[in-house]
Amino acid sequence: MIGNRKMINIQCKNKFVSSFFMEINENLYIEKKMEEGHLYINGVRAKVMPDGVTYQMIEPELIRYFDEICQKFNNAEIDVDEKTFLPLFVKHDNEYILRIEFDANSTKMITKIGLDEVRHIRNIIENVFRNKIIPLLQKVNLYG
Amino acid sequence: MAKWELNKFKVEKSDNVLTFETEISVIEFRKNFAVTITYNYNDKKVTVKGNVDLKQDYTLYEIITELERLLDNPLIKELAKHNRKQEYRRGFTLTKIENYPEGILANLRYIFNNKYLEFGNILIYPAFKDPKKLCEVDLEVETNTASNVKTLYDLLTIICTSSVRIFIDINRINKILNTILQILQKGVLYAQSTI
């Protein structure tokens, strides 16, 4: 979280998702821990929770959607705005390629890639969240 | 033309007055040439100040026309959408000007009232040849218009969809600078011939 801005954090390794953390509301967050292929809800392995079978069923599909975001990157860390699903920063192979900084009076975007590429990355991330991840989470009542 | 550097390029319209300020250093003569052109829309009066021998002829009015076109820009219009107050100021300025032997890089800063959008650093002299390049190279974009991430991304889209217009504007800047440089060159030749 930067200030009051909540974020979704995604770590990619060799073009696949390594981990993600997504705060859905004050009482609910989901995550995939590094190098593990399982979904955790509020820190608890999803399959051992009530409705665990349902959560376990969406696990591979959910992780595959995060993989889609990671397909463009080797090793990367991505922060996404949780309200708009737009990327706030992308660190690729240990170098920031996109960084958005907010201060009291201005907003600054610093890129090491062209704006066309920034817009392309934005489209991928926003589309995967809006059309795939969020509807899937809604299906199992993990998103309001 | 002797080796020169650009120090300032600023155009602003407020209170029905268009003001243009530019400053060029001619390295060989270690001399700064500055000019301020003011055009009052109420009485149609043009004032020229500075040490550039800019006469009140068609050249001057051509410069004013180009400056007006610089201020009639889709990015300024976009800033206006984010400012509900009646217009009291619009402007276009080159900031963070960097002079290199191969050319001049600068940030483009667009202003509407108290809102601004600035991005760079872009080759402004000589003008880059391919408008598509604008969105293919790394850029820094700064604005006080985007209160949320979506607005910022919308502005990026407008920058890229306006890239041809931005390219045309950079050609306008080149045209204005070349006009002033020609006048400076004539002045230098005249000075040399009278020595």
Helix content of chain A: 25-40%
Segments of chain B where pLDDT lies below 50 for 5+ residues?
none
Q: Largest sheet of chain B, order of strands side by side?
A: 4-3-2-1-5-6-7-8
- The number of helices of chain B is 4
- Report the order of strands and helices of chain B: EEEEHHEEEEHH
Q: What distance separates the N and C termini of chain A?
A: 20 Å
Find the count of extended strands of chain B (DSSP E, 2+ residues). Answer: 8
**Category by helix and strand content of chain B:** alpha+beta
**Main sheet: strand order of chain A:** 5-4-3-2-1-6-7-8-9
N-to-C CA distance of chain B: 19 Å
Got a strand count of chain A?
A: 9
Largest interface chains and counts: A-B, 21 and 22 residues
Share of residues in strands of chain A: 35-45%
Strand content of chain B: 35-45%
Write down the overall geometry of chain A. globular
Low-pLDDT runs of 5+ residues of chain A are none
Order of helices and strands of chain A: EEEEEHEEEEH
**Biggest sheet overview of chain B:** 8 strands, antiparallel
- Which secondary-structure class do the elements of chain A indicate? alpha+beta
